[in-house]
Amino acid sequence: MERKQILSKRNKEKDYLALEKKFWEHIGFDSERIGLDMKRPFGNSDIIGSILRIIGGEETDDDGEWSESQREYAEKLYAGLAGFLKKKYGDK
Questions:
Q1: From 2, 32, 74, 86, which residue has the greatest number of CB atoms within 10 Å?
Q2: Per-residue pLDDT reduced to its tens digit, 22-46
Q3: For the chain, what are the domain ranges?
Q4: Which long-range contacts (CB under 8 A, 24 or more apart) does 26-35 make?
């Protein structure tokens, strides 16, 4: 099955929830402060690759490269992530 077809069948809401979970895992709490690790969960130089790994994407070849359609999907998720979180938590 072509990668584009696989991506079109993904559940975007489920993918946002996976990204949200990783976001919360990288907020630190102690008795005096709250800390946000600004480099996590996308701390390496390939933010789009990090997103694809978080949502369970699979590299398209042995060199660990992502297809263009996979990268486009992840870019759209990344662009919408702040809005997703704001909608869910912004007014609370």
A1: 74
A2: 888 877 777 777 766 666 677 667 8
A3: 12-87
A4: none
